[in-house]
Amino acid sequence: MSQEWLEQSIIVLTGIGEKMLQRFARRSLFTLNDLLFHLPVRYQDKTRIVPIARLRVGDHYLVKGELIDCHIQQGKRAVLSCTIDDGTSVLNLRFFHFNQRQVTGLKKALEQGKWLTCFGEAKYGRQTLEIIHPEYRIINKNQLIQMDESLTPVYPTTEGLSQLVLLNAIQQVIEKLQQNTQKPDAEPSAHADKPLAHAKEPSASDKEPSANKKPSRAGLIEDFFPHSMRQELNFPTLSEALIYLHAPPPDCSVFELMEGHDPYRGRLVFEELLAHQLSMKSAYQKHQQYYAFALRTPARTVKKHYSAQFLQQLSFKLTQAQQTVVDEIALDVQKNQPMQRLVQGDVGSGKTVVAALAALFAMENGFQAALMAPTELLAEQHRINFQQWLQALDLKVGWLSGKSTAKQRRESLAQIADGSVQMIIGTHALFQESVIFKRLGLVIIDEQHRFGVHQRLALLQKGENKAIAVNQEDEKISFYPHQLIMTATPIPRTLAMTAYADLDCSVIDELPPGRTPVETVVLSEQRRNDVLHRVHNACLNKRQAYWVCTLIEESEVLQCQAAEKTHAMLLSQFPDIAIGLVHGRMKTAEKQAVMQSFKQGDISMLVATTVIEVGVDVPNASLMIIENAERLGLSQLHQLRGRVGRGTQSSVCVLMYSHPLSKNGKSRLMTLRETNDGFEVARKDLALRGPGELLGTRQTGLAEMKIADIIRDQQLIPKVNDIAQRLMDEYPQSVTPIINRWIGQKAQYQNV
Ligand code: ADP
Ligand code: MG
After folding, report:
1. Ligand 1 atom 19: the closest Cα is on which residue?
2. Whose CA is nearest to atom 9 of ligand 1?
3. DSSP state of 393
4. pLDDT in tens, 702-752
5. Which is the closest atom of ligand 1 to the Cα of 646?
6. Cα 651 to Cα 422, 545, 596, 677, distances in angstroms
7. Domain boundaries, the chain
């Protein structure tokens, strides 16, 4: 079926010239196809007149009434205020005009009429409900009013692109579609219905007589959704669904369209979710086709048994959950396909050890492993840990961060390139162009939620390119490293299925033994002195505390200044305890020295900015005070709180808030007081902030879908997932067209 007409520029439509074209482009609307998939956000009901007494604030209505008052209010600019009465109630109408003459003219015109119909959004007025700047028409009392036959769609628009122009353009495309969809069930579904290779059984459409009256080719839209699946899901055809949403039938109510789960809307929601799922799954599949070196367990090779030695030297046993995940990783990396595994585990569940074991699998097979962390502070912590662990095994740790000096950097790069370091740790500086690995077998990304999806994919791609460029000594094979991604933001399963459809997922669902849950206390800032006093006492009794300074502004400078001030204040107030300071603007060596003293117990109280949010691990610290806690997000607070409660000592986290406390802010603090469970916190966070913030996916399609809503529609996801898999297996030719139709340009990010 020819789809060319859909790829035509919208300039072919009546009423659209070059200038208009640019305005459409601002909303990424270029072709007729784009218009067809630019779906209404809501609908206006001009099909019936609503009694004024039945209006509800916030909705749009068509009303009819008699003008009972009409006067000009003088002020900065003249306002015409009118009141209409329809026998059920009265409604105020207000018109703003810039000059007196216009207002007077309007007043005259209205008064001559006496009866009006008007349309607009009902709002609270001074005494009655009101509509500001309604669309209106002057009528005779008994005049028959021409009403719309069906609901009017309202489209997402942009400056310079009026609703009317948009509506007009889209309606023209819909008309083309309508003209050719007289008998939708007979719509030929072209190749989408022919399963791959040999047809298993003739699909319903194949059985249909091919002598159906043929609609003209232009004006049809190909349904890439196979007929058999459409029937199974009880979905209408694509053109039926599109026509229904863009030009709802006369008897359809706004409520039905927006709330009712009609199959038309349902089909499009499903298909959009499907497109996203397919896009991620194709990325996964594409990646699986690359070659990776299988990392065998040493029993089957002559290499050293580093991982076993490492486990022996650890002071604890892996938890069952850690062991399970390590086994999953071991299975993955023994294949000649790159591992793409995500490990989710609450703060403190012990992800670092799991990462270390994975890295050792690479090293015992003669490969390098790279570990990337989102902050320098965390990267440094990892460096210290890994150095300690690997020293005994005679393995060397390399280091790269944005703050390395030119000389350090040159040395590091040389060591990474000649293979004299096996474990490489750093910030995102690790994946810059100039970094060439000798034999990179594994990439680990810690706290990936801090990077965002795009960044993660871009970083992986860079890692891959590097790896391709490196040939193994004599064999000239290019290879991809295995990938291990770690996150402390546990998300509900259905959401993970969508957001991480390009990864295999593991969960560490157990904390190491002996931890006592952190007790969380919510206190007003007015109790600050009280809190200070208690923390001081605790420190005198050999406990260690974090004092976290936050600010509204994202400005790191201001945050650091606040921390400096607090530090100075505490120093003068409590000369008898050792108080340290750490923030993001300190020199690397300084930060490291402070963290080290804190870890060794030389410092009792550590004043810090939110730099310590991720990854920092000082098990003996058992107190945390967070200032202005109401300003931070739920997940961030949970992460921060995760810095305590890592040892056997019972820990307390004090969330201090300042007034006034917003409802949302209060709800966040209460959630934290009530639960220590990361999944629960994430669920609440999702409800409060939406998926974009939580997953760092604001820029990917996930958070900005046209019609689907990943939270509202999550119950569909298992089915979407199932259909996506079957499409890929049985109808692979439908996959790319569906992705392109819904995601288009954006898919390129997901298909790196
Ligand atoms: P995460 O990165 O998951 O937040 P870490 O890897 O930093 O957690 O581990 C938190 C703390 O728990 C560390 O001090 C670590 O040494 C310790 N730990 C990890 N696994 C175990 C275990 N199986 N038993 C006891 N302690 C453990
Ligand atoms: Mg960690």
Report:
1. 350
2. 350
3. T
4. 556 788 887 778 889 889 999 999 999 999 999 998 988 887 654 444 433
5. 11
6. 37, 10, 21, 15
7. 48-147, 306-335+350-487, 518-675
